[in-house]
Specification:
heterodimer, A: mainly alpha, Rna Polymerase Sigma Factor, Chain: A, Arc Repressor Mutant, subunit A, 2 domains, B: alpha+beta, Protein Transport Mog1p, Chain A, 8-stranded antiparallel sheet, 8 helices, 8 strands, about 20% strand, extended
Chain lengths: ~200, ~270
């Protein structure tokens, strides 16, 4: 909510909720500076961004990165042309930010060494823990760019055209890289004793 | 179609992304080729495995941080378009007020940035000195921020809230001294403890997140006892900071991540979280 100590420009925006049309309204109002619209847009979209970032950079880093992604989104919203869906643009920012973060992390020699967040967890309640752990492990091993592509397809259910738009690569490249990602995941799983 | 061609197309076939013609050709081949059918089945199994991944929920504290940062970077005053015509007295007065507010805001933000820069330098020096000479580091911090030794009961009265450390740390920490500091962000309670196995640990409780305390030191994040925690390497020890209900806790001098995790869990337990 806006307060006296929160001097932002506010505009009216429609009260409709979360299907495709109101997202466009929320984007337009957010672009005009409505903090309330920005919050609604965040509410609509942050779970899918967070889900992607957790798999890209780990549970411990995802909080800070989701914050960074949305700051980047709101600060550069004027550059969003509307030619692609907002969701596609959001995925583009998310993947770019996570790849940049991973590159920076690789350069940072003195960073506190953190083990994989998911590897920290204890096998307590999940009946499928073995399979889940296997999948966490092989995904973490996969090259980050291939991983982002696999996640956009398998978890976020994006089409090849949407992935191509998000990652700014041709659809043919999406197809070949996705095939490569699946082959590698299968190979890594088999190396860990998985029987397809 | 040969197996080598089909294998290249299987992934896109599985996703329903092939043209009808190519999809039919792949389907015909898979119907008669056990190897390619098995490859296709593997893609199904890979998807099944992916569905077993956890679907973590984003924590609730992220939006307030985003809003705070957006507010901080937002220009507070949008100058109105100046009409070419003669302005009325009221308009001139309003513009003068706006100008004054704008200049005050600029002066405030510059002062604030300056304060933060000083804070980063002073706190950076505290961190640099803490491990080798904790008493000396402490005296400098007190001198910079008008610190005064205080009893916890008095601190509660002055702060008008009950700090988490008021309920004590685990028994292997012996309280040495508490201080009230006048930091730019807020009045901040610092309590220093001697570990029974040696070394010193200081716990700060403050109103706002203070990432600039750590300057450009290598920082990383980890979930400690279920709570997102920022970790900073300081010589051979760790500093850590996390949100504790409405305020933030920063500890200096932790031995390792395990000690930070224990403290996070302890404060949560004290508050019945």
């Amino acid at each position: 909510m806006l307060t006296a100590s929160n001097p932002v420009i506010d505009v009216e925006w429609p009260e409709e909720t979360l299907d495709a049309e109101p997202i466009d309204d929320l984007v337009a109002a957010s672009r005009r500076g409505s903090r309330e619209a920005q919050q609604r847009l965040y509410d609509c979209c942050h779970q899918r961004v967070y889900r992607l970032l957790v798999r890209m950079v780990g549970l411990g880093e995802a909080d800070d990165l989701v914050q960074q992604v949305f700051l980047q989104v709101f600060r550069t919203l004027k550059q969003f042309s509307g030619q692609s869906r907002f969701e596609t643009w959001l995925y583009r920012v998310s993947v770019n930010e996570s790849l940049q973060h991973l590159r920076k992390q690789q350069r940072c020699q003195r960073c506190v060494s953190l083990e994989s967040d998911f590897m920290d967890r204890q096998p307590d309640q999940e009946r499928d823990f073995d399979h889940k752990e296997l999948m966490e492990h092989v995904l973490a091993r996969l090259d980050a760019e291939l991983r982002s592509l696999f996640l956009l397809r398998e978890v976020e259910k994006q089409s090849y055209a949407e992935i191509a738009a998000a990652l700014q690569i041709p659809e043919g490249t999406v197809a070949s890289r996705l095939s490569r990602a699946r082959q590698l995941l299968k190979q890594y799983l088999v190396e860990l004793g998985w029987e397809p | 179609m040969q197996c080598c061609e089909v294998v290249e197309l299987l992934s896109a076939y599985y996703d329903g992304e092939l043209s009808a013609e190519k999809a039919d050709a792949v389907a015909d081949h898979v119907a008669v080729c056990a190897n390619c059918a098995a490859e296709l089945e593997t893609l199904h199994k890979l998807s099944d495995l992916t569905t077993k991944l956890d679907q973590p929920s984003a924590p609730r504290h992220v939006w307030p941080r985003i809003a705070a940062q957006l507010n901080a970077s937002q220009s507070p005053v949008t100058p109105p378009a100046m009409p070419a015509q003669r302005a009325s007295r009221k308009t001139l007065f309003a513009l003068a007020v706006l100008l004054l507010v704008g200049l005050s805001w600029i002066a405030f933000t510059q002062w604030h940035a300056h304060e933060h820069q000083h804070l980063a330098v002073n706190f950076g020096h505290f961190l640099d000195t803490f491990e080798q000479a904790p008493d000396e580091a402490q005296q400098e911090l007190i001198a910079h921020y008008s610190g005064k030794p205080v009893e916890i009961a008095d601190a509660i009265r002055e702060l008008k809230y009950r700090p988490v450390v008021a309920d004590g740390l685990p028994p292997d920490y012996e309280p040495a001294q508490a201080y009230l500091l006048k930091m730019p962000c807020c009045r901040c309670l610092e309590v220093c403890y001697h570990r029974k196995d040696g070394g010193m640990l200081c716990v700060f409780e403050h109103d706002e997140d203070q990432p600039f305390w750590f300057g450009d030191r290598p920082t990383s994040s980890k979930v400690c006892a279920g709570k997102p925690t920022r970790l900073v390497q300081v010589d051979s020890s760790l500093a850590a900071t996390w949100q504790q209900q409405r305020r933030h806790i920063t500890v200096i001098g932790a031995k390792d991540v395990a000690e930070v995790t224990r403290l996070v869990a302890h404060f949560d337990q004290q508050r019945g979280l």
